[in-house]
Structures are given as C-alpha cells and as structure tokens.
Design the sequence.
C-alpha cells in the first residue's frame, strides 16, 4: 500500500477501499461551503434580547421626546412671562400717565370751581366778616385817642352801625371812611402805634397764583 489505500474489515466479504484523493477533498470542501450559503444566517441575538433592546430604545426615545417637549414648554412659558411682564410695565406706565392726567384735570376743575365760587363768597360775606374783625380788635384800642377805619364805600354804613355797641366815648375816637383803595371786602384799621388790615381778595388772588403755578410746573414735568 502507498498510504492512500486501506483495508476495511466487515462481517461480509472483505474489499479494498481507496481513500479520496486531494482534488476530491477540495471539491467536497467547496461543495460544503456552497451549501452553507443556502443555510439561514446564524442569529446574533435572541428574541428576548431584541425585545429588550427595542423596549430600551423606545424608552430612551420617549424620555428624550418628553424632555424636549418639557424644555420647549419651559421656553414658551418663559417667553410668555416675559411678554406679560413687559405688558404690565407698559400698562403701569400708561396707568400712571392716565392717573396724572386725571389728577391734573381734577385739580384744574377744582381750581376753576373755586375761582367761580370764592370771590363771590368773599364779597357776600364782606360786611359780616368786617364787623367780626372790628368786634375783636376795637375793644383793645379803647385807650387810643384816635382810630381810623377805611372800608369800601358800600360798607361804610354797615360798619358804622356796628360801632354802636362800643362805649360812646370810644365811638367818638373812631372815624369810618370809604376808600377807593379798598377791595370789596377789605378793612384797614390804623392808630398811632400800629395798623391792622383784612384783605381776603388779595389773599385769594395770591392763593390762585400759587395753585396755577403748581399746575403749570406739574404739566411741564410730565411733558
């Protein structure tokens, strides 16, 4: 034998078998490889592993989506809040401007109403207020040898009649005269050592000038 033949023992008759040659082995190897191509591919993952991987991927994707949605909502809420704050700031400024205008208009209306009422009130109460002033002042001047009282011409008679309540000796020391320099409600009392006067019209005019100046200054500041 040359190493390629071998004897096969059997219960039957013996025969001589010859082993395949090397070309035959290469053919068989090629045949086996081609058959392997027809076989289904070997699974790299089990179904359980694929299911677990799919579920994990879904969970990761869902979590990422929820996080992105939450971030988008937070950004939208922040923008909305910023818009609200800006709108409130503008509204506050507008409200303040309207309030200032309303206050200015109200003050102007009040001043106008006072201007139409106070002068008339001063004139109508001129005689009674003048008599009240003299009733408070003249008793303290009883020792004065001479007292001069200047009033508007329209109030001379009324003031003179008010002096009737004084002692006769003091009445003789007092002179009442009408004066063109007096306003409708003025009373000027003078004696040797002093002077007293009541000028409600001048006081009111001064008040009005100050009020108007204050309103003008406020309008200038707002402008």
Sequence:
């Amino acid at each position: 034998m040359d190493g390629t033949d071998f004897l096969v023992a059997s219960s039957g008759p013996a025969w001589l078998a010859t082993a395949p040659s090397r070309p035959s082995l290469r053919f068989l190897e090629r045949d086996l490889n081609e058959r392997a191509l027809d076989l289904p591919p070997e699974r790299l993952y089990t179904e359980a592993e694929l299911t677990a991987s799919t579920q994990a991927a879904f969970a990761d994707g869902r979590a990422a989506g929820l996080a992105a949605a939450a971030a988008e909502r937070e950004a939208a809420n922040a923008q909305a809040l910023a818009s609200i704050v800006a709108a409130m700031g503008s509204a506050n400024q507008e409200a303040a401007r309207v309030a200032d205008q309303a206050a200015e208009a109200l003050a102007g209306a009040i001043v106008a109403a006072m201007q139409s009422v106070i002068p008339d009130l001063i004139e109508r109460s001129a005689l009674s207020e003048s008599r009240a002033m003299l009733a408070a002042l003249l008793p303290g001047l009883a020792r004065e040898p001479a007292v001069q009282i200047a009033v508007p011409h329209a109030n001379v008679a009324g003031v003179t009649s008010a002096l009737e309540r004084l002692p006769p000796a003091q009445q003789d020391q007092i002179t009442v005269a009408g004066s063109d320099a007096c306003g409708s409600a003025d009373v000027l009392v003078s004696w040797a050592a002093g002077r007293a006067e009541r000028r409600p019209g001048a006081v009111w005019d001064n008040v009005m000038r100050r009020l108007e100046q204050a309103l003008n200054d406020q309008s200038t500041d707002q402008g």
